[in-house]
Amino acid sequence: MSDAPTFRDRVQELVELGPRGVLFRAAWEAKLRTGLTSLLERAPAPLAPEAVHGLPELARSFPFDAMGVAKAMADRLDDGSRARLQEVASLGAEGRILAFGRWMADYGDPPDWFANPVTGRRWNSTVHWSRALRDERRCGDVKLPWELGRFPHAYHLARAAAYYPGQAPALAGSLARQIEAFVQQN
User: Fold this and answer.
1) Are 157 and 89 in contact, with CB atoms under 8 Å apart?
2) More confidently predicted of 45 and 113
């Protein structure tokens, strides 16, 4: 079965968007396809270094009692579940991420934010966002590198740090380095 929209899907989209929505969408698509978007949009200013390097201090200032949560939840996770959590967190700290909650994807350490972990091909990091998807045939599904950018492993790292306080500094440091790299490269 094809994923291509049918005529009926297109008509429904037009009805739901209404005349103003259709005009907006047509203008949007025209700007994207002609390259006008990349010409009109300015590149964002780089972040100040202190904005990125202050992440660990910011995390310590959150009013959250991780140890209290771990203590309250201790009887809800059996030993096997805690061991699996520790394993997934350790792998995440090394750039091997439980992608889509189903399978391990190796993005490298430090992670390559533009790599498809299945094909090994890289998306062009220098093109404007409006032209980035033109590489999909060469690189594969863009959702694979985007999954890493969602930081699904952050939850595993935080939970493991709460259950295993001795590992918390290393896990937090790893996550902070990954966030810094993401911000610098994106």
Assistant:
1) yes
2) 113
